Structures are given as structure tokens and as C-alpha cells.
Write the C-alpha cells for this entry.
Amino acid sequence: MFEKALVGSRRYWLWVSALLVLIAIGAIFYLRQLTYGLGVTGLSRDVTWGLYISQFTFFVGVAASAVMVVLPYYLHDYKQFGKITILGELLAVAAVTMCMLFIFVDMGQPARVMNVLLHPTPHSMMFWDMISLNGYLLLNGVIAFATLSSEKKGIATPHWVKPFIYLSIPWAVSIHTVTAFLYSGLASRPFWMTAVLAPRFLASAFASGPALLILLILVLRRTTGYDPGETALGKLKTIMTYAATISVFFVLMELFTAFYSGIPEHREHFEFLYVGLDGQNGLVPWMWISTILMVAALAMLYSQRAGKKILAASCVCIFISLWIEKGMGLIIGGLIPSALGIVTKYQPTMPEWGIVIGIWSIGTLMVTVFYKITVGVRSIS
């Protein structure tokens, strides 16, 4: 089955080669960080989480969103999702792998990862986050491998896989809920200390994940002819539209609470993001770009205009909007100003961007190989 990833056109190998080059560049930057420490990043005493953790937070949502195709297909027997469920599960495997890599590089010294295993602390949310992410990776890996192996052999998926499928549904919700608890449990960070953070995470996840999956399906259709059908794409579009709307609603509720209450500790974080604070306004243009993109995407989606270009454009807008708002906006906005009211400048350095691009390339390479195998198996099954 894996041999199908070793056969491809010249365009396929050029794409793989380009990804390998980016991965190598990321590895070089990581070796520099490993040698000199996190001092090569833009992190500081006040801003202890930055670009790495923002990417981790975003891609946990992408991984969790696989439940949006798994649940209808397996629990509600929605056969139209038959050709895209495996794509969602494989995307989840790549996304969780990226999440773990972002945690790994953020820890500075890789040996520290072993402390979580050698000295488990069940009262720590980080311990449960490790359990949830590794468990979800294992579940989706087993399900996807068993499904594709059965299809290649021309037999039905084994019955023992079903318990893993059913378990993966609540587990998908848990990985992003636990991630939200990592932040909302920090009493000194008013921006994160809200009960609506977990629902807000899930709503944004169920918008960004389907948006990325739709874009990948459109690419697959154009490059390989693999077509899951218009009905499946239409349903994914509906899920994405409603989830994005709910995500915007939650953000508006947070804004109302912060400004109507007049509590400075809550209001200042939003002021920093949208208008700037104490002369620091580096994130302001990005947050307004995020807002404009989301409004544009919802306008396109609710206009009911047909056409793949409109659908692709709305997916790109939603994905980028949430990548900004849920990534850098959420993490940096929660750390600035600090618990002492200090406004500290944070700007990712070249090594940070290089490492992030390397990890993105690893995830993209995994998706490329996984989807190449899937299309190869299903073309002969």
C-alpha cells in the first residue's frame, strides 16, 4: 500500500522535493535554536508563548474537526461522506503530528519532553493534553490504516475497528476542550479566563477544519480526478458556514462583556489587539485583516452564489482569518499586557518562522503522501 506514494509524475516529485527542502531549512534553524536556546526567538519573560504555541492551538482545531465528517458518516449513516471521511481522518493524523512538533520545539530542550512521561502529574492540564493528543493520533492512525488496508484487499472493514471509530468522536471534542482548559485555567490571564473559551475553540475548529478539507478536495479533484461528489462538498460548506457564524458570535459576546463591564483587565487585551496599547500596535493590522476576511467569507457563503471559485475563496478567507485570530491574536493577546500591566513587544524572529515553515512542510508532506496512497488504493478498489 505504501508503495503507491513512491510512484508519481514529475510534478508530484517536484512538489515533494520542494517540501523536503523546506523541511531541511526548518531543521537547520532548529539546530541553531537547540545550540543557542530560545534566545534566538522573540520570546521573553513576559511573552513566554508565541508563534509555536499559536500554531499548536490552531492545528489542534484542524485535527478535532475530523469529527465533522466521522460523526455523520458512522453514526448517521450519511453515505455521501463515504469518499471524504478517510481524508478527514488522515488530515487529523497530520495535524496532530504538527501539534506535537510545535510543542516539542517550544520546550527548548527535547529532553524535557521525557519529564511528562517520567514524572506524570495528573493535576496538570499539560499531562491530560499529552494523553488526549497521543490517544487521538493513535485512534485516527489505526482507523485510517485498517480502512485503507481493507479497501486494498477488497474486503469489508473489520468489526473491531468500530469501537475505535465511536471512541474517536468524543475524543476529538476532548482534545480541543483540554487545550482550551490550558488557557482558561490561568487565573492571571483575564483574556483567557472565560467559560466560553472551549465552545469558541470548537466552533472555530469546525469552521477552519472543513475549510481546509474543502480546499484539499478541490486540489485532489483537479490534480487526480478524485471526486467525492457535489452533495458532500455542499454539506461541508453548510457545516463550515454555521460554525464560522457561531465562532463570530462568541467573539462578539467576548467583546461586549469586556467593554460593557468596563473592567480594565479584560478590556485592555482587546484594545491591544484592535487599536493598540501604549504605542504597541503590531497586531492591529493583522486583526483587522482577520475581521475583514471573515466578513467577506460569510458574505460569499450566505449569498448562495454557485461556483467552485467562490467556494474556494470563502474557504481561504475563513482559514486565514481563523489562523490569525485563533493563533497569534489569541496567544499574544492573552499575554499582552502582562499580569503586571506591562506591554511588551513581541515579534517572531527568522529562526521561529523557519522552524514553523519546516513543521508546516512536514504536515503538508504527510497529507500529500496519505492522499496519494488513498487515491491509489481507491482507484483500483
About this structure: The domain at 2-380 is CATH 1.20.1630.10 (Formate dehydrogenase/DMSO reductase fold). The mean pLDDT is 89.
